[in-house]
Fold these 2 entries.
Entry 1:
Amino acid sequence: MDRRKFLNLSIVAAVAVPVGLSAIDFRATKPDTWTAHTVADSIKALYGDIKPDASGVTVKAPKVASNGGAIPVTVKSDIAAKSVALFQDANPESTVAVFTVAEGGIVDYMLKIKMKKSGKITAIVEGLDGKFYIGSQSLEVALGGCEG
Amino acid sequence: MGNMKIKAKLKGDIVNVKVMAKHDMLTYDQAKKKGLDANFITHVSAKVGDKVVYDVSTSQFLSKNPMFKFKFKGASKGDKIAITWVDLKGNTVTEEKKIK
């Protein structure tokens, strides 16, 4: 390979590497979790066969959501976490979001989600200690937000 | 511009950030009904300088014009926070805001 070509190649390679090294695109690394239809399958596809502890994770959502199109959900945890994943069981696919927790990050995330019908929201926290923690919250949806 | 609303406020040593992205977030079902292509935000990240402070891979089940709130430590007043989202079609939008 001549030198010029080699230089060009190295520039391309440098561009292709994402800037933030701690950022993981879970859609690219774990494609199966986004198409799984049940919460259990999604969790399996994302983290493998795990037995999460039912403690330390708080999921906050309104008990009755009048508009299923925008339900505010908050996930909170004091666990030093590596990643946090959010699932629900009302829509055709289960996974809603997977967070990568930055170094020294605070697990206190709020986001608005859509739900087709009443269901349960589940959050899994992957701790830096290698353990998994789970929290959940059931809610009623008065008006479905996915329009069928 | 106008694709995002960002609010970042320093309280003590914690920065509270609120982001509202303008996006239709069409799920596959909705898109089929309307005869459009599904398109939704698949990744959102926030950076202060070159440090990633927030990073999430998302699915079609975020609400329309989704809103995100998060907190982080280690930034000071006047620092710029840059939020980037990418959607299924590969559109990338980045906006910056000073931390108040």
Note: Confidence is low (pLDDT under 50) at residues 11-21 of chain A.
Entry 2:
Amino acid sequence: MANQGKPEAGAPAPAHGRTVTLWDPVVRLFHWALVISFFAAWGLGKFGPDQMTLHFYAGYTIGALVVLRIIWGFVGPRPARFTSFVKGPSAILAYARHLRDRRPSNTLGHNPVGAIFVVGILLVLAVQVGTGLIGDPEDYVNAGPLADMVTIETSRSALGIHELLGNLAFFFVLFHIGAIAFYKRWKGEDLVTPMITGKKVIEEPAE
Amino acid sequence: MRKLLTAALTTAFVLPAVAAMAAPPEDVVKARQGYYSLLGLEMDGLAAMAKGEVPYDAEAAKAHAANLQVMTTYSPAGLYAPGTSKADMPGKTRALPEIWENFPKVGEKGAAFREAVGELASVAGDGLDALRPAVGKLGGTCKSCHDDFRATDF
């Protein structure tokens, strides 16, 4: 990104802050499409009709989104790239030590701790899609499209994992929302607006 | 001597008592799984048509549906003898103990299943477009009961 980290041209900077372009349209579209398809898939899986066609469509959408995000993590703009935000233990611990500070992190991208969530949810969703594709609930109408390629024992185990991971992913999402609320209330940092507009306001310490 | 006495007493008193009891739990589980395997065999043929894996055949569809109807007249009470849950026989069955704690709800699921079989039987010969939703609905009644009363894995 050409203007990465640079003040936004033409836009008046708010008092005590400068605006930078952070999230590209693909990342934003991915994020909100994933929000919708995740809650659709999870809700339909738990409470939906016994003929799970819509759950399947939501799952296919998630699969496509995860593939898109992984590709984008290699070829997208810098803040979207895995190499820019996946950090080793020392960087994670260094960031975590300041997590409770009552000031914005001003990270231009995923912070090292948040990166664990990003990679974690992508992994969980990838396994979730995979186990859904080969799972077979033995009701003859909701078998995964690839269930025939594995043994019935594998299909059963896959379904067991699918149910467990569905709950795990849901708790991941709750934790994610909790973390965003924590950043807003405790650290005074708005993480939601940049994911909508793509622009982040970096608060500068008052002189 | 003591061992001999134990053996003799076991033979004399315990064995006849066991023989007089209901079918061994292992046999109940085997019969139960057999019952659902029979249902599954018929469903397999119907689902293959519904999914387009094999061409629709009105006579075959009607035969599957008729067999399922026969199965709905079988009283499954004996298949749910006490002491045959997954908790009693881990690794042998996926039947959750909740079945024995909530027979009325199990009965409702069974009624929905029988109703769906009835509907299927009435449309099985009317073409693929009529068969497909009926098979879907019937499969849905399988899932509905599995969700609450059958463990995902052994």
Note: The CA atoms of residues 75 and 114 of chain B lie 12 Å apart.
